């Protein structure tokens, strides 16, 4: 059995750490970390290339399970979801029965028994990116987080602000991490250091989606 996780960028790094901390077994066939990084995970290196990578996996007769993670960004989750569903139907020649995107993501078994899963960052419901998913891992009553929100908003209104509106959430999350006991840790390392909490519903929904999309080591 071969399985693939398609991501736009480097999402898999932090998501893998989350799965490890949650005690989720490796996908079957990819317990070896090198195989996991080089075979299981397929980085599309941008939204425009996701469908190209997806087509390659759909065209391979050996791949039985495919998970796709994309950002909702400003287009919204339903827009991104519909685009992927239309593409999958076109490439497979199969009409998917009432495909719906829920807060728990989407997974579906095709008639040839292949499983397709789709997760639209951050939570399948709202606009946003991986950083919005990560932001949900910070308690709303965290005083540092509240202070970050105030200061990043203040900076965003200044003429000398260099980041664009779409990068605001990224600036916010990394500012928060820059103000921790060990400043500036990457997202995955920050999860390991428990500066970001894996105990919330969005993370639980993602974990369930992963378990339903892929066959894991027993």
Structure description:
The protein is an alpha/beta fold. Helices cover 43% and strands 13% of the residues. Strands 2-1-3-5-4 form a five-stranded mixed sheet, sandwiched between helices. Strand 4 and strand 5 (115-121) form a beta hairpin. The longest helix is centred in the middle third of the chain and has 16 residues, at 77-92. It is globular, with a radius of gyration of 18 Å. The relative contact order is 0.17.
Q: In a few lines, what is going on in this structure?
A:
By secondary structure, the chain is an alpha/beta fold. 43% of the residues lie in helices and 13% in strands. The chain is globular and about 55 Å long.
Write the layout of secondary structure elements.
Blueprint: E1 2-7, H1 11-21, H2 33-40, E2 41-43, H3 50-58, E3 63-71, H4 77-92, E4 106-109, E5 115-121, H5 130-135, H6 143-156, H7 168-178, H8 187-192, H9 201-213
Parallel strand pairs: 1-2, 1-3, 3-5
Antiparallel strand pairs: 4-5
- Give the fraction of residues assigned to helices: 40-55%
Strand line-up of the largest beta sheet: 2-1-3-5-4
Count of folded domains: 2
Would you identify the regions where 5 or more consecutive residues have pLDDT less than 50? none
Rg on CA atoms, Å: 18 Å
Distance between the termini: 14 Å
Which strand-content bin applies to the residues? 5-15%
Q: Strand tally, please? A: 5
- Overall mean pLDDT stands at 96
The largest β sheet comes out as: 5 strands, mixed
Tally of separate helices: 9
In the CATH scheme, the class of the largest domain would be Alpha Beta
SSE succession: EHHEHEHEEHHHHH
What best-fitting shape do the alpha-carbon axes yield? globular
Q: Which architecture of the largest domain would the CATH scheme give at its second level? A: 3-Layer(aba) Sandwich
